[in-house]
Write a structure and sequence with these properties.
The protein has 383 residues and is of the alpha+beta class. Helices cover 52% and strands 10% of the residues. It has 2 domains: 154 residues, de novo design (two linked rop proteins) (Up-down Bundle); 216 residues, 3-Layer(aba) Sandwich (Glutaredoxin).
């Protein structure tokens, strides 16, 4: 194979990128990719069912393909080159289609990996056409590559669907500082971690009756897609078990401008700080109208801060909203939520976080609403 250096450079780049993404996938640190924060396109893509093939991350397979390509540049064999060309081109088009039409998300790192693969496929096809001295038959390689692609596609469509969440118990412990704002006020008390963490549902944004027998605490961001999905799934749980569940809603903006514990190198979610403050202020102003405000702030496409403020003011009133936004309580709650987030993300960065039971934490979002219902029914004894 003449002038293989370009292919070697591309193969090495693809191998390094695949190994990097595989490491982050296996260690649960996807959100620490530059430009990829919690709830971002990167996390939604790399945490989706399409990132795995029978529970094995697809980046493991891409890494093996790039390693094989690198070796092939020293000992070229026509069937192998043809198979790799078909696999690289087909896989790139398959996953670009998944990104555009299924997930409707953009992951710059994934796109870069697929672009490298597509470029390698073009170069391989050109060299196969130009170099008649390569041993072996290209037809067998094309058939093998097409077969491998068919197995990948069928396996991802009809194969097992991996879990998209994690549940831990006791590994992370939240504790109250003296006079902690989450536990101030009057009304029923909800305690977690053997009494170390206290919440008063009546004094915090919540959905459902504050005296419900089961209190859950959700840490979320209005701009996070997984957070929106969990919100919808929790609505289904509450509809099935009316009066039994109260969900305390604590916003954690995925933006370092108002959350000092959110990595500055991660994707900064635009409008996250403003929407979080608006939600807290709306609760402070008119608690009874909070459910309507909560729905508005989860609107898609995400509302710009100015538009969201106008919409919320129409619900709770301009003067009431302005007075609540000036209340130090808003920033104090936001700071307390961020402090909890610092501890909650130590185990995994998956968002959102749902606290239930005594010390159970759900990280991320279940693949279906039914999975969440079954989990909570089993864990809490809901009937």
């Amino acid at each position: 194979m003449k002038s293989p250096w370009l292919l070697r450079i591309l193969a090495l780049a693809g191998l390094v990128l695949s190994a990097y993404l595989l490491t982050l996938k296996l260690t649960g640190r996807i959100s620490y990719l530059a430009g990829c924060g919690e709830g971002s396109g990167c996390e939604n893509v790399l945490g989706s069912r399409w990132s795995q093939f029978f529970y094995v991350p697809v980046t493991a397979f891409s890494g093996m393909m790039y390693a094989l390509l690198l070796a092939t540049t020293w000992r070229p064999f026509r069937p192998v080159c043809a198979a790799l060309a078909v696999c690289f081109a087909g896989a790139a088009l398959w996953f670009f289609g998944i990104l555009a039409f299924v997930l409707e998300a953009f992951c710059p790192w994934c796109s870069a990996a697929h672009a490298i693969g597509l470029t390698c496929a073009v170069i391989l096809a050109w060299k196969l056409k130009k170099d008649d001295r390569l041993p072996g038959s290209g037809r067998s390689g094309v058939l093998a590559g097409a077969g491998a692609l068919a197995v990948l596609m069928l396996g991802q469509v009809f194969g097992p669907v991996p879990e998209t969440h994690a549940i831990t118990a006791g590994a992370t412990i939240l504790e109250d500082a003296p006079g902690a704002i989450h536990g101030r006020g009057s009304g029923p008390v909800a305690t977690f971690f053997d009494g170390r963490k206290t919440y008063r549902p009546a004094g915090l944004p919540h959905l459902g009756p504050p005296d419900a027998p089961h209190v859950l605490v959700k840490y979320y961001d209005f701009t996070c897609e997984a957070c929106l999905e969990l919100h919808r799934n929790l609505e289904a749980v509450m509809a099935k078990h009316p009066g039994q569940v109260c969900v305390i809603m604590l916003p954690v903006p995925l933006n370092s401008a108002c959350n000092e514990f959110y990595p500055a190198t991660a994707e900064q979610h635009e409008h996250a700080c403003e929407l979080a403050r608006l939600g807290l202020a709306a609760w402070r102003a008119m608690p009874d109208l909070y459910p309507e405000v909560h729905e508005i702030l989860f609107t898609r496409p995400i509302l710009e801060a100015e538009i969201a403020e106008i919409a919320v003011a129409q619900i709770v009133g301009e003067e009431a909203l302005a007075a609540a936004r000036a209340d130090p309580w808003v920033d104090e709650v936001l700071a307390a939520d961020a402090g909890d987030f610092r501890r909650l993300k130590e185990e995994t960065v998956k968002m959102p976080k749902l606290l239930f039971g005594n010390d159970r934490l759900l990280h991320g979002v279940t693949r279906t609403a039914d999975v969440l219902q079954e989990t909570l029914e089993e864990e809490l004894g809901l009937k």
